[in-house]
Amino acid sequence: AQKVTQAQTEISVVEKEDVTLDCVYETRDTTYYLFWYKQPPSGELVFLIRRNSFDEQNEISGRYSWNFQKSTSSFNFTITASQVVDSAVYFCALSDPTSGYSTLTFGKGTMLLVSP
Amino acid sequence: NAGVTQTPKFRVLKTGQSMTLLCAQDMNHEYMYWYRQDPGMGLRLIHYSVGEGTTAKGEVPDGYNVSRLKKQNFLLGLESAAPSQTSVYFCASSPRQGWDTQYFGPGTRLTVL
User: Fold this and answer.
1) What DSSP state is assigned to residue B16?
2) In the A/B pair of chains, how many CB contacts fall below 8 A?
3) Which of A47, A52, A82, A105 has the fewest CB atoms lying closer than 10 Å?
4) CA distance A44 to chain B (A)
């Protein structure tokens, strides 16, 4: 069965600290897609990254980086030198083959609080 | 482009009342989705559509109906609202398959008394 686990419900850090948000997934598929979305206090969900199962290269975008490891079924997200504006709920999601890949399975989210 | 818009932004209903939430997208996307977000539960899929005239059930479809008469619009209906349907509702759309990026609307906060 499809499952996405974000074990960290809430993380609090002080500005400029590095922080890693964990995402562990379960799927029987060999082809799948993983996503991260950000939901700032304003409420709207913002797409951050999509990664397919054939591409295990880590990705870096500014202060954001993602570590995809198929061996441990993890797709972790690291924010370097965190800022107050990074405070948000972050969701990890996995493509769902049971719907013909029409839908995503979301984790329950991790709330990140960055204090000045 | 406005992207994905939702109407209304807020609504308060009494138990048993009905209402329709409207989602509109101007990106010519084939796929559209309705989610609900509850504290500690993440996003749960209610219904989705893979094209004009099609609908399918998601994880939590009970108590809701949907229609996709036009490609750009996806309507979510509550025929007889219950307090358990108090939630924030998000609409999303994506260009092709579900593995493509989903673009979300701003959400509708619904309270059922």
Assistant:
1) T
2) 61
3) A52
4) 5
Among candidates B56, B97, B101 on the partner chain, residue whose Cβ is nearest the Cβ of A47: B101
Chain B environment of A91 (Cβ under 8 Å):
42-43
Please write the tens of the pLDDT for every residue from A15-36.
999 999 999 999 988 888 999 9
In which element (H, E) is residue A114 found?
Answer: strand A110-115
CB-CB contact of B23 with B76 (8 Å): yes
| Chain A closest-CA separation from residue B82 CA (Å) | 23
Measure the CA–CA gap between B99 and A96, rounded to whole angstroms: 8
Q: Are strands A103-106 and A74-79 parallel, antiparallel or unpaired?
A: unpaired
Pair B4, B12: CB distance under 8 Å: no
- Listed residue (B32, B59, B66) closest to B43, CA to CA: B59
Per-residue tokens: B92: 């999303």
pLDDT in tens, B41-98: 889 999 999 999 999 999 999 999 999 999 999 999 999 999 999 999 999 999 876 6
The chain B residue lying nearest A5, using CA atoms, is: B42
